[in-house]
Amino acid sequence: MNLVRAELERLSARRFVQLMVVLLALAFAVTAATTLAGSHKPTSAELSSARAQAAEMLQRKEDTHQACLARQNGTLPPGYTDEYLPADCSEVDPIRQDRLPIAADYLPGVFSFEQQARPLLYFLIAFLVLFGFLVGASYIGADLNSGGVVNLLLWRPRRLTVLGAKLGTLLGTVLALAVAASLVYLATFWVIGQTAGLAGQLSGDFWRSLGAIHGRGLVLVLLATALGFAIATLGRHTSAALGVAAAYAVVWELGARLVMEIVDARRPDRWMLSSHIVAWLNGEVRFWDNQLCTSSSGTGSCSGFYSLTWGPSLVVLLVITGGLTMAAFATFRRRDLI
Amino acid sequence: MSAVIEIEGLRKTFRSVRHGPRVAVDGFDLLVEAGQIHGFLGPNGSGKTTTLRALLGLVRADGGRMTVLGEPSPELLPRVAGRVGAIVESPQFFGNFTGRRTLRLLARAGGVSISRVDEALELVGLRDRGDERVKGYSLGMKQRLAVASALLKDPRLLILDEPANGLDPAGIREMRDLMRSLAAAGVTVLVSSHILGEIQLICDHVTIISRGRRVAAGRVDEVLAGHDRHEFLVRVAEPVRAAELLGAAELTAAVEGDALVVSGATDPTVISRVLGEQGLWVSELTPIRPDLESVFLELTGGGEHPSVPRQVDDWARPSGADDAVIDLDVRGVDA
Questions:
Q1: Between B258 and B240, the higher pLDDT residue
Q2: How confident is the model at residue A304, as a pLDDT?
Q3: Which CATH number goes with the domain that contains B248?
Q4: Same domain, A175 and A234
Q5: Which tens digit of pLDDT belongs to each residue from B225-239?
Q6: Cβ(B43)–Cβ(A123) under 8 Å?
Q7: Across the strands, what pairs with A309?
Q8: Statement to judge: residues B44 and B109 lie in one domain
Q9: Quick one: B16 and B97 in the same domain?
Q10: Which of B53, B86, B96 sits opposite A338 (nearest CB)?
C-alpha cells in the first residue's frame, strides 16, 4: 500500500502527466466554449419550423418508397420523374434507414446533445487513449532511464512487486481520471444542451447506448495505457513505445494494407488493429471487399460485405496487450539494470 | 568479527549483439566485516559498479556466491534490504520535488518512519535546504541527498558508490566525518571511490579490483606495507661518490638531483654507517613510504594481467608479509 501511495505521488508529480491533464482540460474548455458560443436555445417558432421540415422530409422519403413499390407493381404513373428509384426498393424504405430526419437536423446553430453526445464521446476516448499510451510509456520509460527504478529497487528489491505496483497505480490513476473526465465532459455538454441548445430525445436506449460506448472506451484507454507501459518497459525508453506505434502505423496500417490491396488479399481489414479497435468501440464494423464476390460461385446474391464484431476484436486486443505486458514483466525480472 | 558482505568467485559477462561478450567481473572475492570502513578501489571499467550492482540484485551474476548481512543475495536480499542503505553511482531525483519531499517519498515506499527524513537531512547537512527544489541543488547537494536517502533506513550496512562525486573539499571532509561517525555508531561502510587519498584517510580496510579481479585486499596499512620497497631519500655532500659506496655495500642507490634514493635497505642505520665510515655525513635520511595511489597504480596500471583466470592477490602479497593481505587463497592454474 505504501508503495502504491508513493507511486501515486510520483505519477502525479510528473510534468508530462501534468501537461497532458492541462491539454485535456484545455481541449475540453475550447470544445465546450465554442459549442456554447455557437449554440442558442431554439425559439418555439424555430422548433415548429424544424419539426415541420423534418415531417416533410420524412413524408418525401415515404413517397419515394411508395413510388418505388408502385414501379415494381407496374402502377407507377407514366412520366414520373420526381426521384431516382433504385432497383431494390428496400434501399429507400424509411424503416430500414439508420436514422430518420428529426427536428434537430433543421436547427442550424443549435447544439443537440442527443445528436452530438456520441461524436463528443469518441473524441474524448481518442484523447484518453493517446493520454494513456503516452503517460504509460513515459512513466516507466523515464524511470528506467533516470535510475528511478534502480533507486526504488534498492528499497524494495522485489522487481515484480515494484513493476506491478507501478502498472497497477498507473492503470488505477488513468481509469479514475478517464471516468472523472468523461463524466464531467458529458455532464457539461448535457447542461449546454439543456440551457443553450437542445437536449433531444434522451431515452433509456440512448443512455444505455452511450454508457456502452463509454464503458468500452474506458477498456480501450486501459489497454492503450498498459500497451504503452509494456512496450516502453521492453525497450527501456519512452521513445521505444512511440517508435513502435509510429512504425506499426506506417509499416502495417499503411504499407501492409497497400500491399494486401495490390495482391488482392481477402478481407485485409481484419488484420488491422484499427479495425478491431473500431469494432470493439462500436460493437461491430462492416467492411466491403470485392474479392468476396469475385470468388463466389455466382449463384445467389453477394453483397461483398463482411463484419468484425466486438467479441473477437476484444480477444485480439487483450491477447496483444496481455502478451506484451507479460513479456515486459518476464524481461524486467531478469534484466540487468545498468 | 562477523562478515557483513561476502562475495566469492563472482562472475559477470555482459553480452551485446553489437560488441560481443565483455567480461566485467571474473571470479572476484570480497570480504567486508562488521564495523569496517572498507574502501573499494578500481579504475574505470574494472568491475566495481558491476560488483555492487550484482550484490544489490540489480545485475544478475553468472556465477559465484554473495551474502549480505548473512543472507544470500539476491535471493533473500528483501529480508535485509531494510538494513542496507545504498547509493549506486549518482541516483537521479525529480527536479521539481524538494529534497524533503524526495526523502518522504522514499521513506513511504520503504515503510520507514517519516521522522527519519529530518534526521537524514541533518546528518548530511541539508536540513536548512530541504525545502528547496532538487533542480536548484548543486551536484554536491544532490550527492548529499543521495547519501541521505541511503541513511533513511538507519542502516547497519552502508554501500556508497563514489559518494564524494561533485563535493567540494569542505563537503568531502564532512562526508569523511559522517562516515567515521557512522562507523563509530556500529555501521559498516563499503565505499567505492577513485579519490585515493580520501580512501586512505577514511578507510581501515581496502579491496582493489582490476579487470574484474581482486588484486589486493586487507588493512590499508598492511597493504601499503606490503608494497614498501624499503626506499630512503638520502642527502649527502657527494651523492655520486655516495652512490658508489652504497653500491659496493650491495645496496641500490640512484642519484636524483642533489639527493640519493636508496632501496633494499631494511635498516637505515646501514646507510649512515657505510657513508660515515668513508667520511660522508648524511644530512637527511627519510624513509619513502608508498601511498595508496602508488600501490593502486602499480596494481592496476602497470601490473601484469594474466589471461588465465585466477585469484590475483599474490601480486599484492609482498614476500614475507603473508599476514598483510587477508584471505590470500590462491586458486586456479597459477596456484
A1: B240
A2: 77
A3: 3.30.70
A4: yes
A5: 877 777 888 898 888
A6: no
A7: A284
A8: yes
A9: yes
A10: B53
Are A253 and A124 members of one domain? yes
Residue A197 lies in domain: 2-38+112-261
Torsion angle (degrees, nearest 10) of CA A19, A23, A25, A30? 150
Q: Give the Cα separation of A60 and B328 in Å (integer).
A: 103
When pLDDT is cut at 50, 70 and 90, the band that residue A220 belongs to is very high
Q: What percent of chain A has pLDDT over 70?
A: 96
Q: Does A262 touch chain B (CB under 8 A)?
A: no
Place of cell 527519519: B116
Q: Which amino acid is at B266?
A: T
* B272 plus B177 within the same structural domain: no
Q: Which of B209, B224, B239 is the last residue of a domain?
A: B224
DSSP letters spanning B73-132: TTTTHHHHGGGEEEE-S-----TTSBHHHHHHHHHHHHT--THHHHHHHHHTT-GGGTTS
Q: ipTM of this complex > 0.90?
A: no
> Count of domains in chain A?
2
Q: What is the total count of domains within chain B?
A: 2
Range of the domain at B268: 231-288
Do both B261 and B136 map to the same domain? Answer: no
- Which is nearest to A13 in space by CA: B118, B113, B148, B95? B95
Pick from A5, A42, A17: which is nearest to A196 by CA? Answer: A42
Chain B residue numbers touching A148 (CB-CB < 8 A) = 92
Do B156 and B8 share a domain, yes or no? yes
| Predicted confidence band of residue A245 (pLDDT cuts 50, 70, 90) | very high
**Domain end marker among A237, A261, A285:** A261
Whether chain B has a CB inside 8 Å of the CB on A191: the answer is no
Residue A179 CB burial class (10 angstroms; 0-12, 13-18, ≥19): middle
- The band of B222, judged by pLDDT with boundaries at 50, 70 and 90, is confident
Give B114-150 pLDDT, tens digit per residue.
999 999 999 888 989 999 999 898 888 888 898 899 9
Cβ distance B108 to A9 less than 8 Å, yes or no, reads yes
Whether chain B has a CB inside 8 Å of the CB on A1: the answer is: no
Say if B327 falls within a structural domain. Answer: no
Q: Is residue B326 part of a domain?
A: no
A10–B94: do the CB atoms touch at under 8 Å? yes
Q: Kindly determine whether residue A2 and residue B96, on different chains, have CB atoms separated by under 8 Å.
A: no
Co-location of A141 and A182 in the same domain: yes
Query: Are residue B270 and residue B212 in the same domain, yes or no?
Result: no
| Residue found under cell 506506417 | A250
CB contact under 8 A, B96 and A13: yes
pLDDT of A29: 92
Domain boundary among B180, B203, B224: B224
- Is position B317 within any domain? no
Q: Which residue has the higher pLDDT, A8 or B197?
A: A8
Q: If you measure CA to CA, which chain B residue comes closest to A336?
A: B59
Q: Which residues of B touch A (CB under 8 A)?
A: 14, 50, 53, 56-60, 74, 77-78, 81, 84, 86-94, 96-97, 105-106, 108-111, 149-150, 153
Query: Could you tell me if B133 and B262 lie in one domain?
Result: no
pLDDT at residue A117, as a whole number = 92
Q: Which residues of B touch A154 (CB under 8 A)?
A: 56, 58, 81, 84, 86-88, 150
The more confidently predicted of residues A274 and B19 is: A274
- Cα separation, B160 vs B142, whole angstroms: 14
CB contact under 8 A, A13 and B149: no
